[in-house]
Amino acid sequence: MRDHVDFVLGQWHEQCPDLNVSSMAVFSRLFRLHTLAAREVDITFREYGLHQGEFDVLATLYRAGPPHALNPQALVGALLLSSGAMTHRLDSLQQAGLLVRAPNPDDRRSVLVSLTPQGLRVIKAVLDDYLIKLEELLSPLPAADRKHLATLLRQLLSPHDANAHSS
């Protein structure tokens, strides 16, 4: 089975037969998959009035477990954002009624960001639809291949993952 990347690699081989383009076989497919997946999940997020970055904030708060609250610095670290980008996302989500900022009872110098009941409902609903979309995208692969692919991608990313957490 040939795909678009095979076509492109063939062109490279014709034009530059001595050029090693084998890394393109992997990364061109990763880039194409990223573009396709981002397009598909963005459709899901838009149905809920969200963007990818806003989903990431809500999902991070949800994953933190009850009371679904973190300080902004923890969110910045988890999402690898600048404080300015985080402030923009928090402002947008607060205006939408999906989260609130309140004084941190353990540290009066800081605030806690927490999901509102509406935010909790939205993240649960969008998460269900998001996971359905991801399953659709992975449907050509049987479970064993998915697991193998996840292992290979973990190996590829691990030297670059400065925020790896041991569990």
Question: Which features would summarize this protein structure in a list?
Answer:
mainly alpha, 10% strand
Task: Outline the structure in words.
This protein is mostly helical. The protein contains seven helices and three strands; from the N terminus they run αααβααββαα. The protein has helices spanning 4-15, 22-47, 52-63, 72-79, 83-95, 117-138, 143-157, and strands at residues 69-70, 99-104, 107-115. The chain has a three-stranded antiparallel sheet with strand order 1-3-2. A hairpin with a 2-residue loop joins strand 2 (99-104) and strand 3 (107-115). Helix 2 packs antiparallel against helix 6 and helix 3 (52-63) crosses helix 6 (117-138). It is elongated. The chain starts with a helix and ends in a 10-residue tail after the last helix. The mean pLDDT is 92.
Please provide a brief summary of the model:
Helices cover 65% and strands 10% of the residues. The chain is mainly alpha-helical and 167 residues long. The mean pLDDT is 92.
Going by helix content, strand content and strand pairing, the class is: mainly alpha
Range of helix content: 55-70%
Summed over residues and divided by their number, the pLDDT gives a mean of: 92
Taken in chain order, the helices and strands follow as: HHHEHHEEHH
Global morphology: elongated
Report the β-strand fraction as a percent range: 5-15%
Strand order of the largest sheet: 1-3-2
Extended strand count: 3
| Largest pleated sheet | 3 strands, antiparallel
Oligomer: single chain
Q: Ranges with pLDDT <50 over ≥5 residues?
A: none
**How many H/I helical runs?**
7
- Radius of gyration (CA) equals 20 Å
N-to-C CA distance: 39 Å
